[in-house]
């Protein structure tokens, strides 16, 4: 059974639903970029955290820190930050004439004149492990010495949006790697959740939001993926499905080489409000009812749309079978949470769930709020029945 993805009523409210990390909590004097650029930077956002539980019982968020140029436009050019191997692994600035760029978005700019859409970022993202209390409500430590930053040309514009899964005796983390070469997914592994080894690229250009299932199915690793494109073929007249971006599936014997699964995954419906795109959120976790997956759906609105978190249950033996999907959004943006940091807001209506941890009778869900801060929500397991 598949329930239509139409938002009916308001999302649930929760006893614990708070911001635990905001941009002012980040000490950029300890950033990987510190001392490289010779210009002022600031924290544009600390958001979209992967989540895991350490051996000491504390939670650990792997937070995306978007470090931006305070003044990206100077000397008649707009600038981007880039890691460069030829400069000894240092960070440098690239400038483009302002008249060749659309600079309406503070996060990025689009370059005019080419046959394809080309853009650059006014920030560079790196990953900061932030340790929390077991309930996720308070910060214990910022592990700047364990920060994950670009180290190869395919990451030269940054690493973004960690998703962390425990499979067997190790942690697996997927991140988006941004560069002119490709917009790819690379894999990191760890035995303790704090020290990470890069295993290389596992999905190629513009296949985003890869989340690995927390467990094997018939001896294979499984993952949700989201290949992007500008061309989609139409479903036949009368179909309930809407053509466009969807959550697909892939499986692997070693977590390094992935084969797409023939069955489609989670798709937008013709009569639902999710018409712009949808993609993987938290790593699927196994429950007595099947694999629980939290994912984001986007309703068209203004520039980036309205991001909400939804949930589905997938068959434990064949995740290409969607058993159930919640009829209402699990999470929506909460303007009351971001009101104290209103002066730093540049987006609205965005919640992007990226981490989940079991806490007995509830799940602890970690999300990015407004591409600005980290949000922790305690969601009772009864919400998924």
From TrEMBL:
UniProt entry keywords in alphabetical sequence: Glycosidase, Glycosyltransferase, Hydrolase, Transferase
A Pfam family of this chain: Glyco_hydro_130
SUPFAM superfamilies for this protein: Arabinanase/levansucrase/invertase
Annotated GO MF terms: hydrolase activity, acting on glycosyl bonds
Keyword Magnesium in record: no
Highest taxon listed in the record's lineage: Bacteria
Similarity-based family: Belongs to the glycosyl hydrolase 130 family.
Protein name: Glycosidase
């Amino acid at each position: 059974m598949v329930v239509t993805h139409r938002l009916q009523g308001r999302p649930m409210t929760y006893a614990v639903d708070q911001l635990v990390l905001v941009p002012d909590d980040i000490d950029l004097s300890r950033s990987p970029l510190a001392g490289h650029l010779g210009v002022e930077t600031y924290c544009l956002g600390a958001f979209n955290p992967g989540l895991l539980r350490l051996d000491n019982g504390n939670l650990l968020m792997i937070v995306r820190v978007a470090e931006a140029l305070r003044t990206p436009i100077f000397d008649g050019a707009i600038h981007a930050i880039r890691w460069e191997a030829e400069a000894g692994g240092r960070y440098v600035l690239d400038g483009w004439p302002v008249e060749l760029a659309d600079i309406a978005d503070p996060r990025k700019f689009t370059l005019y004149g080419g046959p394809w859409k080309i853009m650059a970022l006014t920030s560079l993202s790196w990953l900061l492990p932030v340790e929390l209390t077991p309930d996720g409500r308070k910060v214990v430590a910022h592990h700047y010495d364990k920060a994950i930053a670009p180290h190869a040309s395919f990451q030269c514009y940054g690493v973004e949006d960690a998703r962390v899964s425990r499979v067997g005796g190790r942690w697996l983390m997927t991140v988006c790697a941004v560069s002119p070469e490709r917009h790819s997914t690379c894999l990191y592994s760890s035995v303790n959740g704090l020290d990470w080894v890069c295993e290389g690229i596992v999905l190629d250009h513009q296949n985003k939001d890869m989340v690995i299932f927390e467990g094997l199915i018939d001896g294979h690793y499984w993952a949700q993926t989201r290949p992007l494109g500008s061309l989609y073929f139409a479903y036949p007249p009368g179909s309930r499905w809407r053509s466009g971006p969807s959550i697909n599936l892939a499986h692997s014997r070693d977590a390094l080489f992935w084969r797409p699964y023939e069955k489609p995954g989670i798709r937008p419906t013709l009569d639902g409000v999710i018409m712009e795109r949808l993609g993987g959120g938290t790593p699927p976790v196994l429950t007595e009812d099947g694999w629980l997956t939290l994912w984001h759906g986007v309703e068209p609105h203004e520039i980036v749309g309205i991001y909400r978190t939804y949930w589905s249950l997938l068959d434990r033996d064949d995740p290409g079978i969607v058993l159930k999907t919640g009829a209402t959004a699990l999470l929506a943006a909460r303007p009351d949470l971001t009101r104290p940091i209103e002066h730093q807001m540049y987006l609205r209506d965005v919640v992007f769930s990226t981490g989940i941890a079991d806490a007995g009778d509830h799940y602890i869900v970690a999300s990015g709020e407004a591409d600005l801060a980290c949000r922790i929500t305690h969601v009772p397991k009864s919400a998924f029945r």
